[in-house]
Prior knowledge:
The chain has 467 residues and is of the alpha+beta class. It has two domains: 17-126, Glutamine synthetase, N-terminal domain (Ubiquitin-like (UB roll)); 138-433, Glutamine synthetase/guanido kinase, catalytic domain (Creatine Kinase, Chain A, domain 2, 2-Layer Sandwich), CATH 3.30.590. The protein has helices spanning 17-26, 50-60, 130-142, 163-168, 186-190, 193-205, 231-251, 301-312, 314-321, 374-390, 415-423, 426-432, 434-452, 457-463; strands at 31-37, 43-49, 62-65, 92-97, 103-104, 111-119, 146-159, 210-215, 221-226, 229-230, 255-257, 270-278, 286-287, 298-299, 343-345, 352-355, 362-365. The chain is globular.
Amino acid sequence: xxxxxxxxxxxxxxxxxxxxxxxxxxxxxxxxxxxxxxxxxxxxxxxxxxxxxxxxxxxxxxxxxxxxxxxxxxxxxxxxxxxxxxxxxxxxxxxxxxxxxxxxxxxxxxxxxxxxxxxxxxxxxxxxxxxxxxxxxxxxxxxxxxxxxxxxxxxxxxxxxxxxxxxxxxxxxxxxxxxxxxxxxxxxxxxxxxxxxxxxxxxxxxxxxxxxxxxxxxxxxxxxxxxxxxxxxxxxxxxxxxxxxxxxxxxxxxxxxxxxxxxxxxxxxxxxxxxxxxxxxxxxxxxxxxxxxxxxxxxxxxxxxxxxxxxxxxxxxxxxxxxxxxxxxxxxxxxxxxxxxxxxxxxxxxxxxxxxxxxxxxxxxxxxxxxxxxxxxxxxxxxxxxxxxxxxxxxxxxxxxxxxxxxxxxxxxxxxxxxxxxxxxxxxxxxxxxxxxxxxxxxxxxxxxxxxxxxxxxxxxxxxxxx
Length: 467
């Protein structure tokens, strides 16, 4: 393995390999985290001593067990995966450093992080890796001279309880950091500003371009926004932020959850904004010269085809937007989470909302919740959009009014429904390959089996005495 290329830093808060080497030599950095993003969107990897990283890993790489892409949420080894099993001996994967991602983590003393791709010992990519799945779709765009720009709006709920206290309480009767709806409230968010400010500041130090933060509707619910970037950078930053936010909350003696639906109030979303540009920054989604639309120009036919493709493939690809049992608890009428596969102009009741014009023209996918894996969701949107472009799909009429009351097709309502659609989708198999589809179908099967074998609190409350 060769030393990672570092000729193009994402911004001046990232570290070149030379700068990282120098920081280790001076003792400013003593720990380097080498991490990749797993199927559940979590960072997995190793903490390496800085000198070991510089002297051995930069030039030769490091490895990790391939079971890391073949376990459930609890890290249990489970069957059904082609790439990893007891019969195959649970061998290693190579961690392929991406030097563009090197960054300081200032909430952890003396610590830097480098994110990775995954490869087999023969150097071939692990195609089931979420980062590889997104990269494949980005390569398809690059072949046409296009790039994808994206932003993810990730919500969470914060609690006064530590993670350990929450677990000992069986995650019941937790105390949210706010006791009333603080959507856009300055007073309400000030109460939690020491925590939220720490997250904003440390994420800026880590190379993320922080926009700001605001309160949300559910008790203790907040959102921190980041500036859009190219799709791979956005996904990388999303994974770093989600991990770091939990770590920083723990440092404050608190906890936060990115569950899509923590309770029967509002769920936590991850609306994903996406647009395409030419490699030199030219517009693909907007024609500013021809045809007035609010005085700002019009959508291009390519944009309409892209939207049509996202809509046409949404049911087939919902598993990549909503990957967990809990994801589907968000989808309820009047909840600001979509139930109808439709698009609208600045219409928050639709699955796809169009916003902006000119350089700001983009579609917002409102299906994903805060539990989404950003690499998989972005890959799904790009694959669907390219299908719409290649097939020149016609864009149906915009939905005007309340999409919840529409008779248009619905977003799959359960993980089983989404799993079945994904497994049987000829489009998904063409876009991602059988190996990827079968891998993530098995992931859904594992979750469904675990859930179906569980006796829930709801069943106990309703049935212990009264049935």
